[in-house]
Amino acid sequence: MKIILIGASGTIGKAVDAELSPRHEVVRVNRKSGDFQVDITDAKSIADLYARVGRFDALVATAGHVHFGPFEQFTPEQYELGLRDKLMGQVNLVMQGLKHIGDGGSFTLTSGLLNEEPIRAGASAAMVNGALEGFVRSAAIEMPRGLRINVVSPTVLEESMPAYGPFFRGTKPVPAREVALGYAKSVEGAQTGRVYRIGWSRDH
Amino acid sequence: MKIILIGASGTIGKAVDAELSPRHEVVRVNRKSGDFQVDITDAKSIADLYARVGRFDALVATAGHVHFGPFEQFTPEQYELGLRDKLMGQVNLVMQGLKHIGDGGSFTLTSGLLNEEPIRAGASAAMVNGALEGFVRSAAIEMPRGLRINVVSPTVLEESMPAYGPFFRGTKPVPAREVALGYAKSVEGAQTGRVYRIGWSRDH
Fold it and tell me: Which residues contact A127 (CB under 8 A, 6 or more apart)?
């Protein structure tokens, strides 16, 4: 398969690359490096990417930013950043990708546990992750041509604990290579409309 | 309690009014009628509302629009409508309301089942409902002064079946007076960070 990997240079992206590249052609895309570059907050940049890459079989998005900050101090502009970037950036990759992806192809997006397991400063992340999961469940039932869509919701990464550990006390981290399995299941399996929770479970 | 009811003239709003007004002072707010008017997509309009209403004990939001349409034809502007209106309209009511609500007060928002039980044409509704639920779970753990926040997720209303029935075949509708109980539980109970699913359950 020809797989477009958005965010290939990130911690999750590199693990997905290592998991999928032995079996597939991985097209590595980042904001400023890789085989191609894209700014997912810019519809024109996404259009340019697809025009240059051509037909493909799967898209994996592991990119997207949100603002973290104390709830009472959140501004409309800070919520907007997450809606523009991690949410609509990934959604627009899907919407524009519909015209370029081959029959039976798949889209795999990235959310995260914070909408179900909130932490301090994470109101925007919770909002965006919940939005992505609702979108994926709904998009799945209207996908044409046998296309599929799933989302991977990782817990905190072992690799991120030096930086984010204080926000995630009591949360068991997983290595990125384990998170990468969720993307392989989505791309190489046959399921659709699923949220793959890696390293945690929704039990409430 | 002094309860601000946004969307008081709607089907759910009227049922919430009937449920709560025998025990509380209900301030009825709509876009163009009621005791006060507000456009929840306009931050200035929300600020004006709170300045005029003064101190209050609970806010209930039953208002908010999203676009419905076939998935493949959805435009960025159509997604934007739902993010601006039903999502950030309700979120901005909360964020601005923090400065005006009394200690121990509550916010109760409205989502809907479509993020977990998608229907055709409902991609934006699914996105927005998921976002609201993630936001509420996260906001709840950072609320100051004993403030609480919950969201009611109703199934389709009996009163809406003449108009929306074809989109909800196989879904058991509930009367709006039953949905109103979710708002009473949120306002008059002591829970926080909860999604009150009325007439349906999340079993996956």
Answer: A79, A82, A83, A115, B87, B91, B131, B132, B134, B135, B138
